[in-house]
Amino acid sequence: MIIREKITDFLSCAFLSSKVRKLVTGLVQAIVKCNPDETIKYLLPKTYDSIEKIMNTSESNVLLTDHKGDIELNWYLILFSELVRARGDTLLIYKQMIMSIFHQYISIINKNAYEAIANAANHLLKSLSHIYPIDYRLTLENIDESFNNFLPIRAWGQHVDFDKLQVQYHIPNIDEIDFACQFVETFIYSELTLLNEKSLKISNDERLRSVTIIYYISMGCLNMIPRIDSQTVQDLVSSVVSYDSKYPIYHNKPKFRENLRMRLVIDIGKLLDVLVENHSDDVKSIKTALKIYSLSSIYYGISKNNIYKLSTDVQSNKKLFKNKLSDKRQNPRFLSIKRIVLQLKKFETDNSRTLTEIDKQIVLKLSDLSINRYSEIRQKAQFKLFAILNHYHFSFQIIVDRFVELLNKPDETDHDQIKSCLYILLGNNLVFLPTKYSWTMMEKLWPSIALMNYAKKPSTQKLINDIHK
């Protein structure tokens, strides 16, 4: 009791140093995961009161529109974003308090503040709607007993039989799903309407704030939203049998007014067209909009990059717990649970792999933006294009003709387009088009590459040489 009070009093203070903030937010994450009920009970009301106090002691309009922001307010919003990582059923009790904070500060213009609010939205939706383990303890023993009966230090490093893990999961109930749906429909549609109606009238900062909020809300909720009903692309020449596994995750189906993925494809697609044509200087907003646009096609709760990080973490921990004398590995309970989580997340990413007409539309738009005259825009578009090409087997076939046409007319084509085309052919560590398994594609692409023996600029010639290698 005394230790808990000291920690909560410590966390209730305002931490102005960025280095101290990182340390403290790590501590908050740990205690929220360990004991969410008690942590939220003592910290969330205090944080709410501190935020309200700041709002009441200053003019709200000035606070929301001040680009410099308030350092103390920023800290409490960061703390709030960490607290809503707690289990969804724990947060339901404080629904009114949580919604009140979002209603007041969702439109704040200071970058640090709205990023904290955006992160809070992402954490809240994941807490409410995701399936995840809720108990990572090293042992199932009652650690609250007297030390005479059980000494917790004796459980450190001990392995647990896989059949006796007794993993407990957070599975969203109907109230949590309803809360998540209400939250999404309350905040994401207002931002989409703002961008649809005033995208050319608002400032770059306001536009960036809006697309950032949409991006983080999408990251938190798209795992609840099914694929867009669309016809499968029929003209792809494949060498393997295509599949499209659709396994329902929720017993309680989320109640959205429409398929939000389709809404994002339409609205964000229009926004990209408007920004590229009229506000190509607003690179940050365009890059964030590109993230949202690609999410609609391939994101179902976790990205492949996050899977890789989780897998790396598990593998590094497995090496630490290997008994080198007997060449055996006995995993502690928390590590075995992490391995289960990794498999669940891999299942989520592999849930849908058949290319549809809507996915084709997204690929074609990204390929057009990948040869844009502005380097930062085309680099981000290429990165997202590679992610989608890697996700959908044989999807590269729908863009080959466009690039072959560019390569065959180098004298009549903009140099930046040719260079961008070569960068796409060169790909990254996951995608390299010239060696994809399609004789039809190779027949079109290889002669065009082979005939490009001459380039006006050394950088272009270097790209051609790299592709030949």
From TrEMBL:
One Pfam match: HEAT_PSME4_mid
Residue ranges of domain Proteasome activator Blm10 middle HEAT repeats region in the record: 4-197
GO biological-process terms attached to the record: proteasomal ubiquitin-independent protein catabolic process
One CC-aspect GO term: nucleus
InterPro entries: ARM-type_fold (IPR016024), Blm10_mid (IPR032430), PSME4 (IPR035309)
GO molecular function: peptidase activator activity; proteasome binding
UniProt cross-references to SUPFAM superfamilies, sorted A to Z: ARM repeat
Protein name (database record): Proteasome activator Blm10 middle HEAT repeats region domain-containing protein
Organism: Rotaria sordida
